[in-house]
Amino acid sequence: MNISSLPNALSILRIILTVPVVLFLLNHEFSWAIMLFFIAGITDALDGWIAKRFSCQTRLGSILDPAADKLLLVSSFVTLHIIGFLPLWLLAFIFIRDLMIVSGTVGSFMGDSESENILLSPSKLSKFNTTLQITLVLFLAATGLYPSLSEWHTILFIIVATSTVLSGADYIWIWIEKAILQEKQK
């Protein structure tokens, strides 16, 4: 394997790690879930760094990386809801935002004839939101080990809900600006 294929391999590893993370959460094996989720987080940081550092960014990687993130996070959130650690209202916020982003991205690519040359890149607010969501998964798994942490649930739920809504609004704003710019160029 050469260095240029390593970022995509790391994204694929993150997709594979989703299964054991979910299984460990379902079985209340929180130490293992935290460890594997942390490893997945490291692969997320590494794949982007390697791709940028060694100039091996690809369109596949720009799709694979966020898809791996979404799969891991949404699967973890659904599982945390199933085991009673995450409220349905927050799961709905996260799911609706992610569905909107995926739909908007697919829609913008279908309407753009030059889209095959475009690399997808998340907004800064989206990156911050993803960091908060990762923190929430790790925190909720940690409360399985240390129940006294649960007194902080509500505060973290509100912070993540706020960043999720703001990030979704940010994407809508970006898409509106792009549509206006494209109309002006016609």
From TrEMBL:
List the pathway annotation.
Phospholipid metabolism; phosphatidylglycerol biosynthesis; phosphatidylglycerol from CDP-diacylglycerol: step 1/2
Q: What is its main location?
A: membrane
Catalysed reaction per UniProt? Answer: a CDP-1,2-diacyl-sn-glycerol + sn-glycerol 3-phosphate = a 1,2-diacyl-sn-glycero-3-phospho-(1'-sn-glycero-3'-phosphate) + CMP + H(+)
Cited Pfam families: CDP-OH_P_transf
**UniProt keyword tRNA processing, yes or no:** no
The answer on whether this UniProt entry bears the keyword Protein transport reads: no
Q: Which segments of the protein form a coiled coil according to its record?
A: none
The protein depicted here goes by the name CDP-diacylglycerol--glycerol-3-phosphate 3-phosphatidyltransferase
Which molecular function terms from Gene Ontology are attached? CDP-diacylglycerol-glycerol-3-phosphate 3-phosphatidyltransferase activity
Among InterPro entries, the record links this protein to: CDP-alcohol_PTase-I, CDP-OH_P_trans, CDP-OH_PTrfase_TM_dom, Phosphatidylglycerol_P_synth
**Cell location:** Membrane
Please give a single GO biological process term from the UniProt record. glycerophospholipid biosynthetic process
Enzyme Commission number: 2.7.8.5
User: Which chain regions cross the lipid bilayer?
Assistant: 6-26, 33-51, 71-96, 130-149, 155-176
Q: How does it sit in the membrane?
A: Multi-pass membrane protein
